[in-house]
Design goal:
- With about 350 residues, the chain is α+β, with helices and mostly antiparallel strands.
- About 25% of the residues lie in helices and about 20% in strands.
- It is built from eight helices and nine strands.
- The strands form two sheets. Strands 1, 2, 3, 4, 5, 6 and 7 form a seven-stranded mixed sheet that branches. Strands 8-9 form a two-stranded parallel ribbon.
- The relative contact order is 0.11.
Amino acid sequence: MSDEEWERFLRESVEGAAGAPVEPSARAREAERRLRENPGHPEGRRTHTPARPRRGTGRYAAGLVAAAALLAVALFPQEVVGWFGGGDGGGRGGTPSAAGAEGAGEAPGAEAALRPTLADPFRGSPAARWADGAAGIEVPAARATGWMDAAGVERALRRSRDFLVAAGLDPRVLRGERPAKAIALLNPHQKDVQDYLRAALSPAAPTPETDPLLLFSRFRPEQARLVGDVVKTRGRLTYREGRRGAVEVTADVTFVYPVTPAGGGSDAEVVRTIVRREVVMSWDDPSEVVTRPGTLSLVSYALDMTNGGCAAPTGFFVPPFGAARERPVDESRRVDPYDRTRPIDTGDGITTGEDCATATRS
């Protein structure tokens, strides 16, 4: 063989000779075999029904499933957590879900019927995966609105959240003490609100209109105490331009308080008092409205509560411990206290009257 023929042989061995037949792939050979054995209409890829696996294929199938699971964890970690109960509640571990994570028109999923304990007061509740305290109150990005520039709106949003924290999370207020920090953020020139505060915080028994619980969370220390120091929250602030160029901030926040009887032992009962508040606050232009700089005016405030008392208002939440849990309830009115997709309805029997609507869970 000449040198030229040898070089051509080596080149064609690598590149293939022109016009040489192509060896069919394994897929092509399998398709040809199926068409010969079954000349009818072929099945689509997505409708193929696998045969019963033969002995010896289990290890291969398990390896394939494990590989797929690892790929899914790598690509979609949040969704995979949700497959195993990592959604809105149930367990103690996991990353708390976002403050405004409930979807439009969607309430948290059902939870296992597990009773809370002193060691795990949020057991069996969607709140188990909510954030703690102020971290559960979502604050939007600030932009110039009304009479305020973006920096002013940011301050207004921060102080609005400060008011909610001082009114609903301050340990001293929860023990029934005067909500001094929250009151300091209220416009002292708003007469109707100041009249409400005087009546609500006086020694006299409150009326439904002067109930301090409309704004402040309070328990009688001789009747109930918090389990631990964590209150779970979920909610958000929104804002818009209000009257006379004011920045109007709306807060819609749910608080979950685990409580136990005062003086209870290591096996004491745990009850969750669930409170949802909607507070509309106006940060007014001092050139348009008589106000103290750095304070807010209240436009409206509303309350829903579960396990906080059904009789006439006392000014304190009254968790139903022991025999109190057996009091009659109205089965025709069933309410999910964790459903934040519905509007607050203060006329549904939860906050007033001699009987309670039925909470579907707590």
